[in-house]
Design brief:
Elements (H helix, E strand, L loop, with lengths): L4 E7 L5 H10 L3 E7 L3 H8 L10 E6 L5 H8 L3 H8 L5 E6 L5 H10 L6 E7 L3 H4 L8 E5 L3 H18 L3 H14 L3 H21 L3 H11 L3 H32 L4 H16 L3 H24 L7 E2 L5 H7 L7 E2 L3 H10 L3 H8 L9 H6 L12 H15 L20
Helix pairs in contact: 3-5, 7-8, 7-9, 8-9, 9-10, 9-11, 10-11, 12-13, 12-18, 13-15, 13-18, 15-16
């Protein structure tokens, strides 16, 4: 213990013996007393005990109302900076939170505030009490009790917080929170559970960024510890979550193995729907644009033998269009944009080209695709609003021939499964 430098933060009650006992146990380099108006003198008396503390090695916070839980929490939160500064001195600088003394509000407030600190919890009990074992600790019989690393218990709080973030589509912030808790915990079973949730959140975060193969690997790794998922969520929440994840795995496998397929279009549409839930309409419209473009590319490849819109042989263009487009050809080939691709499909008698026209998407003045081109994420400076997103969403769904229920849905970890 001598090679450690402890910052002891302790609440002060009307009896000095417990505080003296915890100071003698920890031999702290610095002490932060938390006292009430009624116990500030007791804290001062403890500091004056001979050979207990070095001069100038202690500070005192005096609470205005030791019975006001909210105020106690508010005041104690100001200790965050002190704790952070102490920990930044180096790995040998520890923090101990002792909540033995003071009112119940003071002890509860310190426990609540310190749950976010990398620290140990300390409590002074005793081997003998008055009133037949139910009273206060007999003076001289004090014993300092050190709890386990609180993050072993609070890791479950981190999981609950991460589940809420996950359901808000903040997948990577959830993963970062879990990774921090995993590093702080030292109980193997807690670390394993935290690691499993970390892999799960990271996997869905990768999927949300279209990194499908990496996402598939992470989610698969997470499900290797599926019993930890069940233990953390409980049987009621586990069943719908597990079913959703397994279904997602199958979808993700299809997208990863065959990116040029309708499954990728469904994935783009589902991603756009998630962006709508966040009111990120520019991002959502960008995904819808790509989904509509992908549908044309797939139709040309699968039904008309034109594998790429980047290199279309002029001879494969119907005569009605060839005369209009041949001036744009280079070495007998054309590169087609979205509008051109659908115009070609219409000329080829493809139903997709006909539907595109029926939806007025070919109208370069009124089409929501034009609004996308003016988007700040495309070629303009005007943010896209919900009405444009909805018009393009309806068009994309009809063009794709999907029902919204067919699109992949991510699970809800913190509550029962519900539709987005």
């Amino acid at each position: 213990m001598d090679d450690r430098h402890h910052l002891l933060i302790c609440t002060v009650g009307g009896t000095p013996e417990p505080i003296i006992a915890t100071i003698r146990h920890w031999k702290p380099a610095r002490v932060q007393f938390i006292a009430s108006e009624g116990t500030r003198k007791d804290a001062g008396a403890v500091a004056e005990v001979p050979d207990l503390l070095q001069p100038g090695s202690w500070d005192m916070m005096v609470l205005a109302d030791a019975q006001d839980f909210s105020d106690c929490v508010r005041r104690m939160r100001s200790l965050d900076e002190q704790v952070t500064a102490w920990r930044q001195k180096g790995p040998a600088y520890d923090v101990i939170a002792d909540f033995t003394g003071g009112t119940k509000c003071m002890s509860a407030a310190l426990s609540l505030v310190s749950r976010r600190w990398p620290c140990a919890f300390s409590y002074v009990g005793g081997s003998e009490r008055t009133k037949g074992g139910t009273g206060i600790v007999v003076s001289g019989k004090e014993q300092t009790i050190v709890t386990q690393n609180p993050w072993n218990a609070l890791g479950y709080q981190a999981i609950d917080d991460a589940c809420l973030l996950f359901d808000q589509q903040a997948f990577m912030p959830a993963a970062h929170l879990l990774n921090k808790a995993r590093k702080a915990a030292d109980d193997d079973s807690i670390r394993r559970t935290l690691s499993m949730f970390h892999q799960l959140c990271e996997g869905y975060g990768l999927w949300d960024r279209f990194q499908h193969r990496d996402a598939l690997q992470r989610i698969g790794d997470a499900l290797k510890n599926v019993t930890d998922l069940q233990g953390a969520l409980g049987a009621t929440r586990f069943e719908p979550v597990f079913r959703a994840i397994k279904q997602n795995q199958q979808t993700l496998q299809q997208v990863a193995n065959k990116p040029r397929a309708r499954e990728m279009v469904a994935d783009l549409l589902a991603n756009a729907r998630r962006r709508k839930r966040e009111a990120r309409y520019d991002d959502g419209v960008a995904r819808l644009y790509r989904a509509i473009e992908s549908l044309a590319q797939l139709a040309l490849a699968e039904r008309h033998g034109i594998p790429s819109t980047d290199n279309v042989n002029l001879e494969s263009i119907p005569e009605s269009l060839r005369k209009c487009w041949e001036s744009h050809a280079e070495n007998g080939t054309l590169r087609l944009g979205l509008q051109d691709a659908y115009e070609l499909l219409d000329a080829l008698g493809d139903e997709a080209g006909k539907t595109f026209k029926e939806l007025k998407l070919d109208d370069r003045q009124l089409s929501p695709l034009t609004a996308r081109n003016h988007s700040i994420l495309a070629h303009g400076f005007t943010p896209v609003g919900e009405p444009v997103f909805q018009r393009l969403w309806d068009a994309a769904i009809r063009l794709a021939g999907f029902s919204e229920q067919e699109l992949p849905v991510f699970p809800c970890l913190a509550k029962s499964q519900e539709s987005p």
